[in-house]
Amino acid sequence: MSRIGRMPIPLPKGVEVKVDGAHVSVKGPKGEMKRSFPVDMVISMDEGRLVVNRPSDAQHHRALHGMTRALLNNMVTGVSSGFERTLEINGVGYRADMNGTNLMLYVGYSHPVEYKPPEGISFETDARTRQVKIKGYDKELVGQVAANIRKIRPPEPYKGKGIKYIEETIRRKAGKAGKGK
Predict the structure, then answer these.
(1) Residue range(s) defining the domain that contains residue 107
(2) What average pLDDT does the segment 141-151 reach?
(3) Bridge partners, residue 120, by sequence
(4) Do 75 and 95 belong together in one domain?
(5) Other CB atoms closer than 10 Å to residue 5's CB: what's the count?
(6) Domain count within the chain
(7) Could you give the CA distance from residue 181 to residue 22 in angstroms, rounded to a whole number?
(8) Which of 55, 82, 85, 156 has its CA 20 to 30 A from that of 164?
């Protein structure tokens, strides 16, 4: 059996889960999420915990088992405590500011780049450390927004200028060799 798939998902206080066959809705203090899962997977409530079972040991059922449990766990974690991703801005004159709820990026273009957050996403900037925090209850959406912002000015390998994830290390390249004699 899948090590991930067989683990029950504990429900924190304040989280309500409704299971309607393959449709699951999770409601908590941070928000509400709904998702449809494969009909083969059996999702049930058991003593305040969510349990995912599979009908057989077929390869496609084993593949869906762990994924279904992981997606459910991300939904429960998201509506109870939320997710966060941090980006770091490197470069002389590069910075990020807030314009209401929109993120304004000054990253070497002739104009500032304005990024509007989708529903359920909020930004937080720190001018001193030049970091941008992306917060939300949907893990998938938080990661996608972080990737979209990073794509505005990806880090370059020579000076390291650009927008990168806080845990990312940039492989640096040597510049042009000096002129020989």
Answers:
(1) 83-165
(2) 97
(3) none
(4) no
(5) 21
(6) 2
(7) 73
(8) 82
